[in-house]
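Lecture 7 notes: from sequence to structure.
We start with the chain below.
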Amino acid sequence: LPVINKMDFASICLKDTLVSARGAKSCQARNENGTKITFVLGSIQEPVTSPFGATSFTEGEGGRKTLEFSLSPEQEQSWQTFDAWAIAYLTKHSFRLFKAIKTEEQIRENYRSPVQKKGDYRATLRCKCNCEGSNPVRCWDVNRGQVELPADLRNTDLVAKIQLSHLWMMSREYGFVLLCTDLQLRSSSAECPFEETGAFGGA
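Predicted structure tokens for the same chain:
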């Protein structure tokens, strides 16, 4: 599985459900040895792009934004394999995680994939990224030097390091949060349409 070749499904464990002060339920995702689960999306030869850049859908998100990456057909197929694993895992551990025995059909009905697919457009992988505050997403250039996060990530070739953070639960729905921790900026296809001088007729 080229897109998630560093994520071994067999070693993924969801810890017991935690409830925050606000009543939000979640389960941390970790490897069998307790370490965080990370993988790299894209490569130097085949970078990925973000069609919408980092966006906020609600005012209350603060510095945490949504970042969607376009997937190739092969990458989309790999994430379908991830979804199949997730549904099987949640079914097997439903009583521990949800305090109720659920069938595979029930899990499938309420599971929300991190992959979005609309019409004939390319599928996208929905991630979160911290643009400010503690643990903001780190950006790197092609020479491994750290750079500032661009104001607009559209039209930029990217390689992303992503953490499989936790399972969220809201009402009857649930799904995984993917947290983008690092971005390597490969190049930008955006160019200024104006010449250096005389852009507006000159003086």
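Points to note: The two ends are 59 Å apart (CA to CA). The chain has a mean pLDDT of 87.
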